## 1
Amino acid sequence: MLRINQLKLAPDHTEQELKKLLLTTLHLKEEELLEYHIHKRSIDARKKPTIFYSYAIDFQVKNEERILKKAKNKVQKVSQKSYGFPKAGTMKLRHRPIIVGAGPAGLFCAYSLALQGYQPILVERGAPVEERMQDVEKFWNTGILNPKSNVQFGEGGAGTFSDGKLNTLVKDKFGRNNFVLETFVKFGADPAILYEQKPHIGTDVLACVVSNMRREILSLGGEVRFHAQVTDFIFNGSEKSDRHLKQIIINNSEKIDCDALILAIGHSARDTFQVLYDEGIPMQAKSFAVGVRIEHPQKMIQEAQYGKEMADLFPAAAYKLTTQLENKRGVYTFCMCPGGYVVNASSEDGKLAVNGMSYHDRLGENANSAVIVTVTPQDYKSDSPLAGIAFQRNLEERAYQIGQGNIPVQCYKDFCDNIPTEKLGDIHPQMKGNYRLANVRAIFPDELAKSIEQGILNMDHKIHGFAREDALLSGVESRTSSPVKILREESFESTCKGLYPCGEGAGYAGGITSAAMDGMKVAEAIIKKFEPFSS
C-alpha cells in the first residue's frame, strides 16, 4: 500500500474531485488506480482566510515501483498494523472471568474475551443504556437523582454523556486503536471516525453503539448483569502479600466465585475505592485537575478558528488551549464540546459536578470546554490514598450549596470581581439540568480561583474573546480523571492475585479510546494466562 500526504481541496469539494486530484498529482490514468481510501483528513487553517481540507490517501496501483520513483518524496510505502489477539494460555479457568463496570474499559475487555471464547460476566451497578437515558433525563428535568443510574454510572460509563471524542495520545504499535475505532463503526458509529483527525461519535450515537456491543457480547456467550454492584471482596490467605481473590459479593447478598476479576470501575466509584482501601489493596493518591466549564458562542469560535469568510463552510470548530502560570500551575482546556451542552453530572446526593456533552451533529449555539488547573496530592492536605476523593467531594458540596442544588453559573467579569452574577450578557447557558446565577469563584480555594482567572485571561491571547466579560463559567468540573491509582504489576494484576485494575478509574487511562485500549490490554493478559472457559 502507498500513501500520499497533503492533498488539499476546498471545503465544498466532491468525492470525484478528490479522486481527480489524486490521479492528477500522481500522473495516473484511472485504470491504473486499483483502489484508494482516506487515511486521514484534517483542516489546514494556517493561512486564513484560505483554508483547505488536507488529505492523506492510501492507494494501490499496478506498478508501485514506478510511482515511488516518479513521485519521489510525495509518496511513501506503508503497512497498517492489524490487531491480533495473543495465543491462549494453558491455565484452567475454574470460573468465568468477571468484569466490573460497563464503561469503555469494561466493555472492550468483555468484548475481547467474548470473541476469544472466555464467556465473561460483565456486572454493572447502573442500568442498561436505554433505561439509563430515561433516568438521566428525569434528573435533568426534575433534579431527582438516582445514585445508581446517572451521568457517571450505567452502561457505557461516564463517556456516554459526553462529546464522545476518540482522539488519544497513547502510542499504539499493536493496532489496538484501529481495532477500537473499527469496532465502534461495526456497531453503528459514523465511518468517518476512521480517518478524521479529531474523531467523535456524539452522545446520541454512542448510546446505540454501546447497546449493540452488549448484544454482541451476549451472542458470543457472555453475560451482562445490570443493577449489580460489587459491594465486597473475599480473599484467600491472611497475609496481604500472599492473597488471592476468592469471591465477590453483589448487592450485599449474592456471592460469586471468581478466579479473575477485572476491576474497570470508573473514576466515580468512590464507595468501591473505600472498600478496596479497607481491604488493603495497594493504591495511591494521584494528581488530577479541577475547574469550571466555560461557554462562548460557537459562532465566535468558528470565526476565531476559520475567519469570518470561511466560518460557515466547515463543521463546528474545536480548540485546545494551555498556559503555564507564574505560580507554576498549568491551566488547560479539556473535553471541549463544539455546539454542545454543559450537563449536571452529579452522582451523589448533596454534591454537584458538571461535564460537557454534544450530539453527533454539534449544532448547539454554544461551545463549551472545561478550563482546569492541575492539583496534586500536596493540595489534599492528607497522606491518605483517598485524599483526592475527599478534595473532590468538598468542592462538589460547595457547588451544590452555592447553586442551591442547581448548576451555579457566573459571568467571567463577575468571577474576576468575586461577586455573584445577577444578570447575563449576550451569552445564555446551554445546559442539561437547571442552573442558578451565583458566585462560582466561591467554590474554589483562593489559589485555584486565581489560577482559573489568569488562565482564561492568558487564553484570550490565542482566541480573542475567550476572556470576554459575559463568557459563562459553571462548576464544578471535578471528574476529569481518577484521583486514585490502584497499583498493578507487569502482569496487570494487583499484588492480590486474581484482581486486575483496569481503565480510567484505576488510573491507567484518560478518555474513551485509551480506556478501551487498556481494557483490551487486560483482556490480553487474561488470554495469555488462561485457557478459554469451558463449563
Note: The CA atoms of residues 381 and 387 lie 8 Å apart.
## 2
Amino acid sequence: MQSQDVAQRHAAASAGAPHPAVDVEQAEAALVEHYPRLVRLAYLVLPPGLARGRRVLTAHALVQRALPRGRQQVPVVPAQSNGRQTDPGYSLVRLEVVRTALEAGRPLRPTAWPKRAQLPPLLPQVWGLRLFPRSGGADELALDQRLAALSAPARAAYALRGLEQLPDGDVRGLLRAAGVEHPEGALAEANGVPAEYPLLDSPEFDPCSLQARPTDLMRRRRHTKAALAAAAALAVCGALVGLPGGGWGADGAAAPVYAQNPAAQAALDPARLTKVPATAWKTAARTDFSVWPARGALTGDTALLRRALAVWARPGDTVRVSATPGTQTGGPAGPPQLLYAGVVDSARVVIFYDGLRIARYAEPKDGTQGAALDFARADGAAGVEASALVLGRSDGNVRYLTAPWVTRAAERDLTKPDGGVLDLGLTGGVTGPLASPALQQGTCTSWNVLQLTDAQGVHVSADLGELMPARLTAGRPGKAGEVSGATALRDWAPFACSLAAERSAGVRSVNAWAFAEQELPDAAGSGSWVCTRTETWRGDGTVSLAQFRTPGSRYGAVAARGADVTACGPRDPHVLAGVLWKSGGGEWYLLAAGSRDTASVRATGGVTASAQGTQLVAETKQGAQAELSGTLEDGSAISGLR
C-alpha cells in the first residue's frame, strides 16, 4: 500500500481540519534528519521473536520504504508539537514506519496475500556478516524482556510515549491511523511496563550502532550450491509455464498490453479496487450496487483480481465475451468496485461494478485455459433492481448473489399461483441453486422465478439469461405493484411462458396488466385480456404484448404486439387490442377490448363495426383483418395495438 493511502486514512481519522501538504522532498528531508530515531522506533515495535540481525535489517528497510511514492502532494495530519517535532513531513514518515512495523508482526495467513513488511527485506542486505546492536546492562535487558511480552500495538504505544514523548491522545490517534482497531487497549497494556523511558535511548535499542560477526561459513557454502540449483529449476519451470496452454500468467487470458498511461494502470491495480464496508448500506442515502460490500472467499487473492482486471481491459482470443444489448465492453475508466470474488461450482468468479456496468469474470477452477467475461448495464439500478446478480449457471441451475439488505431468498413457479415457495437459503449473500427457465428447451411447462424478501416486502424477479434478473410487477402502468399477492400471481400465471421471448434482450422489468374481462358470444364464458410490457436498460427496445386467454385455457395467446410504443406504459397507460375468435358453434367473431377509460371502440377495413364502452364484439369471417381505433373518456384518440 502506498504512503499516500496511509496519509489519506490518517487525515480521515482526524478532526477534519485543513491539513498541510507534504511533498516527497520534504518527507525525504525529515527522514534523513531523523533517520536514527525512526530506525530505533521501528526496532522497538518489531516483533522480538525475530533474530536480532533480521530485526535490525528490517527496521532499516521499513524506514527506507517510508517515503511517499512519486512527486505528488500528500495531505497529512500535522505533527504533534512537543518541542522537537513540528515538521509534518516527519509525522508522515513516522506514521508509515509504525504502520509497517505493526504489519511485520502479524502472522501470515494462507488465504491472504502477505504484506511486504511481513516478508524478509530485500534491501538492505549484508552478505557474510551478522549485525546486531551492542549489549546493554541488566536494566536494559530486563526492559527488553518486558517489552517482548507485550503485543505489537502495546510496544508501539510504549515507544511513542517514551521515545517520541507523545501524550496519550496523540498516541491513540496515531495508532488508529496506523490500523490499530483498539488503541485504548494497547495503551492500557503498555501501562503494565514501568515507565523507564530513558533506557530507550541506550545502545541496547540502537540499530545504527552495531557489532559485526561472521555467519556460519560451512552452511553458507551449502546454501550457495542449493540456491544455484533452485535458480536453474525455476528457470526451467518458468519456461514451461510460459508455453501455450501451460497455465495462468500474471495477466491470465488477457491480450498483450497495447497502451500504458497512469489512468489505465490505476484501473488495473487490484490494490486500488473499491471495497465497501459491510454495513455501509444501512446509513447510505440510496440502496444500489454502490453500497454492496465485497464478498466471497477470494477477495484477497491479488493474482486472481489482477487477471480479472487485465482480461476486462484486454480480453484475449480465448475469452468468451458477452454483453446485453446497448452495453459497452471496454475496460474500466478507473478503479472499479469489487462486489464478489470466490469459487462458484467449478469456476473462480469475480464481479465488478463501475457505476454503469456489471462485469463478471469467470475462469476454470482447475487452472485450464479459457475464461468468460460478461457485461450488463446497471445505470440507475436501485432498490429491487439492485437486489440480485447471477453468480453462475451449472446443470440447468442458477445461483445468485443478493444485496446485503435481502433477508430471504426463495423459488416459486410463476405458472402455479396457488403453489408454495421453496426456500433457497442464503450463505454469505449467495443463494442455493434455482432451476433456471432461461436454460430450458422445448415446451414451457413451468417458469421458476426468484422471490426475495427485504424490509420493504416481497419482490419477484425472472432469469432471462442475463447477469441481472428482470423485475416482475403487476398492475396499471404507473401504479404497478409487486407480484406477491394472490391477484397479481393469478394475473401472471397464464402469461409466464411469454417471458421466453425476451431472453437476452437487456430487459430491466416486465409488468403484467389485466386491463379487461370480456364476455364471449354464445354464452362461452369470460375471456381475460392482459398487457405485458417489457422495459429495457437502454431505453429503446420496449415491447408491449396484448394477450388473450379464453376460459379453460392454461396459457394466453398473443393477440397484438407493439415495439417501441408508449401504449401500455407509464407514459400512456391505455391499450386497445383485438383478436379473431371461433365459437363452439363454428362462428367467427372479432373481439376487441380497451382499458377501463375507453369510451368507444371502432373497427374498419375487413370488419366494420363500432360500440360504446370498452369492448366490441362483431361477427366476421376467418382470416379477416381489421383496423382498430377508439376514443378515450377525455376525448383523445387511441389506436389499436398491433
Note: Residues 1-18, 71-84, 241-246 have pLDDT under 50 and may be disordered.
